[in-house]
Amino acid sequence: MEVPLNVEVHCSDGRCGRSTHIVLNPATEQITHIVVREKQPSRIERLVPAVLIQQTAAEVIVLGCTLEEFSALEPFNQTEFVYGNLPHHATDPSLTMLWPYVVPAKRIVGDKIRPIPPGQLAVRRGARVEATDGRVGRVDEFLVDPDSGGITHLCLREARLRGDRVKCIPVSQIDEIREKVVYLKADKETIASMPSVAVKRWWQ
To answer: How far apart are CA 5 and CA 97, in angstroms?
Structure first.
């Protein structure tokens, strides 16, 4: 899907703003969201799922939602993304953002771990992670199965580890997800015993 940037964006009942960024899943190089800056006076930028895009042309994007539904979409937070140099998706690479997905340097994704398709895991980078007996850190990245592109683990970066290594927590260990907090089924000791693995990052 070709999505133009810096063009007018219309809902089913009127103009809502202009497109400013596209967001990609680097595992598949598929567009997952676009960022739309609301028309004046608000100028708020909102994260619009690609599934809402009904039609695109050289100078316009048409969304399959109303203005009211658009105004309820999540505000865009650039700190949750990294810039990507994928010029075939945008005329200016600085306008292309990537989800913070990484792949293992060596295969660790087992048959017992069921990957979750990107976009279906409702947790953000930076969300606080709580074990059964207290806080263990924040979500830093998402480990992706290189074959399916599905999310298999939440990654907690550990400053004491050398190089590009992260602590990986299987998504099966998630007990509950609330706003900005992820609760795990395991305690701190169990989390500490989970492997720290080397990863490859798409933007490096």
So the answer is: 13
Strand residue runs (E) in the chain = 8-11, 14-25, 30-38, 45-49, 53-57, 60-63, 82-83, 96-98, 101-104, 128-131, 134-138, 141-144, 151-157, 165-170, 174-178, 181-184, 196-201
The residue that leads in pLDDT, 48 or 198, is 48
* Same-domain status, 112 and 86: no
Check whether 17 has a pLDDT greater than 90. yes
Same domain, 59 and 84: yes
- Other Cβ atoms closer than 10 A to 184: 20
Residue 2 is assigned to a structural domain of this protein: no
How does pLDDT run across 92-151, given as a tens digit for each residue?
555 666 666 666 666 555 444 555 555 555 666 778 889 999 988 888 777 777 676 677
Alpha carbon distance 51, 65 (integer Å): 10
Output the six-digit token pair for 37.
């800056």
**Same structural domain for residues 18 and 92?**
yes
Number of domains making up the chain? 2
Residue numbers of the domain that contains 114: 101-201
* 139 contacts 125 by C-beta, under 8 angstroms: yes
